[in-house]
Specification:
By secondary structure, this protein is an alpha+beta fold. The chain has 15 helices and 22 strands. The protein has helices at 11-23, 40-44, 63-73, 89-97, 107-114, 116-125, 141-151, 177-192, 251-267, 299-306, 310-318, 398-411, 421-429, 431-435, 442-449, and strands at 4-7, 27-33, 47-52, 77-79, 101-102, 155-159, 168-171, 197-201, 207-215, 221-233, 236-242, 272-280, 286-292, 335-342, 344-345, 351-352, 355-356, 359-361, 368-372, 379-380, 387-395, 413-415. α5 packs across α6. The longest helix is centred in the middle third of the chain and has 17 residues, at 251-267.
Length: 453
């Protein structure tokens, strides 16, 4: 048991975790870099400790500094949030060795499933269909070319410790391999502290569908429906919805994918919240892609349609409590959509737009949720991810949810930096989105057609 949690992250996810801790009566400790002294998470936590300079490698990825912050403040648990060290098995192991509760799966499970190459090998051994690719880490560019020649171009070079679309490069032929390989390694090192990469066959025009699972320490495991994350710009998710338009009329397929996700979790003795990601074709065939051993940015839409507080469930499981729900208790009600609002300029090749917020109006009302860490006068730093808010709408039907998202986006006003709000409105209004007949290739094609990149 513990009564104080250190949040090893920043931004909206840190705010989300602080609020969940408060509802459970737990004290909170925020960490911040020198660039984040004025950040909201640093201001509202019970305690705040600066752990290093602005650069992620020297602050939010600085494991000794984070462990020292736990020791100084007496925090008995760490919630890693998303990105940064959230899927770092070494950090989880250090927490275990120091007697600190890591709010997530055990270190050996993160090592097995958080590492994308090992996860594929494990799932393949248990009979789940996987995407063709390398059997492990790629040692060098020449090996990468040999493997790509064997499975056939196009391929993806992907960060083994990756997530959030970082450290991924599309390679159409061997002449592109060297640049793609080196840049993927560099980005993986910058974001995850691990430059290892692997290769996967690129399968275009599929749906990216993920299943949220919860598992307690006694093996009780449930799935909370699915999220459709197919709308991505260069492997970065832009908009997600639950349930998936591809599965709404096929409850049998949802059940099979959910049971496959639970089987995957049980196969590796998983504990806490996790997400099993699949690629789904138009014939109902699905392929295991990876498992995220952490909370997901898009978790709010699952919370909206199931009524399950995933972050509070994470903390309760880490405190040794059993799940309060069984699979028969879980019902998908209504529809939810999440739009990721970024400080960027779609008109200028989506260039990041850090700066000071001069004015801000956040929409509200029934069925509207905003997870954010911004406020008027806040200066968005240039050092981190440019996500500034998640706008979520919920209604009984998908059509109603879309209409609600239209006016919520129109009401969301940000002055002082560029945002992608108008871009998101264009997506929401597009006939392809309204019919739900999109796939993971459509958004990039749409941007090219609109000359937005």
């Amino acid at each position: 048991m513990f009564n104080k949690v250190l949040i090893a992250n920043r931004g909206e996810i840190a705010i989300r975790i602080i609020r969940a801790c408060r509802e459970l009566g737990l004290g909170t400790v925020a960490i911040c870099s020198e660039a984040d002294h004025s950040a909201l998470h640093a201001q509202i936590a019970d305690e705040t400790i600066c752990i290093g300079p602005s650069e992620s490698q020297k602050s939010y990825l600085n494991v000794p500094a984070i462990l020292s912050a736990c020791s100084i403040t007496g925090a008995g648990a760490v919630h890693p949030g998303v990105g940064f060290i959230s899927e770092n098995a070494s950090f989880a192991k250090h927490c275990e060795q120091c007697g600190i509760n890591f709010i997530g799966p055990k270190a050996d499970v993160i090592e097995m499933m958080g590492n994308k190459t090992r996860a594929k090998q494990t799932m393949k051994a248990y009979g789940l269909p996987v995407i063709p690719g390398s059997e492990g880490i790629i040692a060098d560019i020449e090996d990468a070319k040999l493997i790509a020649d064997d499975i056939g171009y196009p391929v993806l070079v992907k960060a083994s410790a990756g997530g959030g679309g970082r450290g991924i490069r599309l390679v159409n032929d061997s002449s592109e391999m060297e640049n793609a390989f080196l840049s993927a390694q560099q980005e993986a090192s910058n974001y995850f502290g691990d430059k290892n990469v692997y290769i996967e066959k690129f399968l275009p025009a599929l749906r990216h569908v993920e299943i949220q699972i919860l598992a307690d320490n006694n093996g009780n495991t449930v799935y909370l429906g699915e999220r459709d994350c197919s709308l991505q710009r260069r492997n970065q998710k832009i908009l997600e919805e639950s349930p998936s338009p591809a599965l709404q009329m096929t409850s049998d397929l949802r059940c099979r994918m959910g049971e496959a996700a639970v089987a995957a979790a049980k196969a590796c003795r998983y504990q806490n919240a996790g997400t099993v990601e699949f690629l789904l074709d138009s014939y109902g065939n699905y392929y295991f892609m990876e498992m995220n051993t952490r909370i997901q940015v898009e978790h709010p839409i699952t919370e909206m349609v199931t009524g399950v507080d995933i972050v509070k469930s994470q903390i309760k499981i880490a405190r040794g409590e059993n799940l309060e729900i069984s699979q028969s208790d879980i019902t998908i009600r209504g529809h939810a959509i999440e739009c990721r609002i970024n400080a960027e300029s779609p008109e200028n090749q989506f260039r990041p737009s850090p700066g000071t917020l001069k004015a801000l109006h956040i929409p509200g009302g029934p069925g509207v949720r905003v997870d954010s860490a911004i406020y008027t006068g806040y200066t968005i730093p240039p050092h981190y991810d440019n996500l500034i808010a998640k706008l979520i709408t919920y209604a009984p039907t998908r059509d109603e949810t879309i209409e609600k998202m239209k006016w919520a986006l129109a009401e969301f006003l940000v002055d002082g930096v560029d945002t992608n709000i108008d871009f998101l409105l264009n997506i929401i209004n597009s006939p392809v989105f309204i019919t739900g007949e999109y796939n993971n290739a459509w958004l990039n094609e749409y941007i090219t057609e609109q000359k937005g990149v």
